[in-house]
Amino acid sequence: MARLTLLALSLGLAAGKDLYSCDYGYDLEVTIGEEKAACGAEIPYSSAHYIASPVIAAGELPVDDDSLYVMAMVDPDAPSADDPSMAEVRHYLVGNINSTIMASGRFDANLVDELTPFKNPSPPEGSGYHRYTQLVYKQPAGKIEFEPLDNSVIIGWSVADFAAQYGLGDPVASQMFTTQYECSEYNTQCGGGVNAEAPICCNQNPSYYPDAQCFKQNDYYYQCLETCPDEDNWDCNNK
User: Out of 94-98, 134-138, 219-223, which region has the weakest mean confidence (pLDDT)?
Assistant: First the structure.
């Protein structure tokens, strides 16, 4: 019982709060392409999966010279809400964000510590809606020297454990949107989600990437592309 109580306290559950909802602190102003992510809003897959990066702004937080923040974006519903055995998926993690940058919501990797670059929401086909939760924590004692993360493995992570490791406490701002898999004319995700034994690029129109193949980045993320991406964390570059 003591262990369960400690876990509940670490997640804010003792106060009836849901870490993966919008229960903590200020409401973040999250923009996905041209879509505004109000709490629980359904964002079209065509926006969520293809944006270069979201805008995650904490405009209500006080702007001062000393405060630094961590922003995390996670999917707690991997591979599905009914079977979250791969949760959490770490989609974005940034630290040492000053209050001016946090208010703008645009994280220049030259001005912050980008611990995990943004990875687009990619819910598997047939897995239903996934929650994508954005959480902002205030760093308690200024700049943190974060340990490097292995970004070839983004599944099975825990934002609560990360917050505990660095003494971040509860989030000071939060937001959440949902999306689900849909095929689109851009032909850039493999059907089948986590099962890549027989991947299918969802759009068969030959005018879109007629020579596309399914490339694997990790156990949760596959893309239909014409050539192997020039990045080390794709399997095709590690054979």
Answer: 219-223
pTM: 0.76
Question: CA-CA distance, 192 to 45, in Å (whole number)?
Answer: 16
Query: Three-class SS of residue 107?
Result: coil
Q: Which amino acid is at 22?
A: C
Tell me, what's the pLDDT at 65? 75
Digit-coded pLDDT (tens) for 173-217: 999 999 988 765 444 555 444 444 444 555 544 444 566 677 776
Q: Give the whole-angstrom CA distance, residue 51 versus residue 177.
A: 14
Return the C-alpha torsion angle 74, 131, 50, 195, nearest 10. Answer: 90
Amino acid at 98: N
Residue 234 vs residues 6, 81, 151: alpha-carbon distances, Å: 38, 26, 11
Burial of 176-189, coded b for 16+ CB within 10 Å and e otherwise, reads bbbbbbebbeebbb
Please count the other Cβ atoms lying within 10 Å of the Cβ belonging to residue 225.
19
Q: Smallest Cα–Cα separation from 165: which of 67, 65, 93? A: 93
